[in-house]
């Protein structure tokens, strides 16, 4: 017979079982407390993700643009001039080379009967087109651009009817902010693109041609190929937004001939390479400069 103590224990266990809540979920059980959704935290996270996306959308293209400019403006070592290889452009297929006398100036209202289109040497205006990496939106007067070439610049000209927006952007990467270079549209040009340095020209069909970089590497500020070595390309008085206009009309009988007949050479500009008469001799700046900033 079970003892009184055992019977009491059994009853206690049974009573405890009845009073304990069931682990099973049933209709009769009260629902658990709802968990609050952290809307503020989620909103902050979405905002951060959106901000990151916006920054990426804004900064990545700019970074890619800067990378493209750096790549375009890095000269090719094998095309950089040296004492032993003074004119590497001689190896570039299609380059036309002509010798021109330097230091022959015309006035702002005179025109020169240039024999090449675009011209790349000969008499020119006493003021040079600003060539500190200037990308002109408008065509510029040839007589001003030629003086820039005499300072050692490369002029990138393009036909706006033959080069699309992407091509213009590609070309501008070679020029933007780069000393001794300039770029402008040239209506009526017989090729899509034409590159000019003093005494040199190269005409091309598209902006992806590898010879563009070769030409610029070989001839931009090449002291062996242009006359006015050491001259500045900065000309603040030359308005990049409203430059002297390009004149496509035929030359009249009063145009200055290519031989500069009637003009006197400016001796301050005879100190460089082709056409200077003193190859390789650096220019000697005039005390105080020429009137109106013209050298």
TrEMBL record:
Compositionally biased tracts (Low complexity): 1-22
Highest taxon above the source species: Bacteria
Annotated keywords: Membrane, Transmembrane, Transmembrane helix
Transmembrane segments: 39-60
Region named Disordered: 1-33, 236-295
One Pfam family matching this protein: DUF3105
Comp. bias regions, Pro residues: 242-251
Protein name: Uncharacterized protein DUF3105
Organism: Nocardia fluminea
């Amino acid at each position: 017979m079970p003892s009184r103590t055992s019977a009491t224990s059994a009853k206690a266990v049974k009573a405890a079982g009845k009073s304990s809540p069931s682990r099973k979920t049933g209709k009769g059980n009260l629902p658990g407390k709802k968990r609050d959704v952290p809307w503020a935290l989620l909103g902050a996270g979405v905002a951060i993700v959106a901000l990151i996306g916006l920054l990426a959308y804004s900064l990545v293209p700019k970074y890619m643009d800067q990378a493209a400019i750096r790549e375009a403006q890095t000269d090719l070592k094998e095309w950089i001039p040296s004492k032993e290889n003074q004119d590497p452009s001689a190896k570039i297929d299609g380059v036309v080379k002509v010798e021109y006398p330097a230091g022959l100036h015309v006035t702002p209202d005179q025109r020169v009967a240039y024999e090449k289109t675009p011209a790349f040497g000969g008499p020119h205006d006493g003021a040079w087109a600003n060539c500190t990496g200037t990308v002109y939106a408008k065509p510029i007067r040839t007589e001003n651009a030629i003086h820039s070439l005499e300072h050692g610049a490369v002029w990138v000209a393009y036909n706006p009817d033959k080069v699309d927006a992407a091509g213009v952007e590609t070309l501008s990467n070679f020029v933007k902010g780069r000393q001794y270079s300039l770029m402008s549209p040239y209506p009526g040009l017989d090729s899509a693109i034409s590159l000019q340095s003093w005494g040199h020209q190269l005409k091309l069909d598209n902006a992806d041609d590898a010879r563009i970089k070769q030409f610029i590497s070989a001839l931009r500020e090449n002291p062996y190929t242009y006359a006015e070595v050491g001259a500045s390309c900065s000309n603040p008085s030359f308005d990049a937004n409203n430059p002297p206009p390009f004149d496509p009309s035929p030359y009249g009988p009063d145009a200055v001939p290519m031989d500069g007949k009637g003009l006197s050479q400016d001796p301050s500009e005879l100190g460089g390479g082709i056409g200077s008469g003193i190859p390789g001799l650096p220019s000697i700046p005039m005390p105080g400069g020429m009137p109106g900033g013209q050298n």
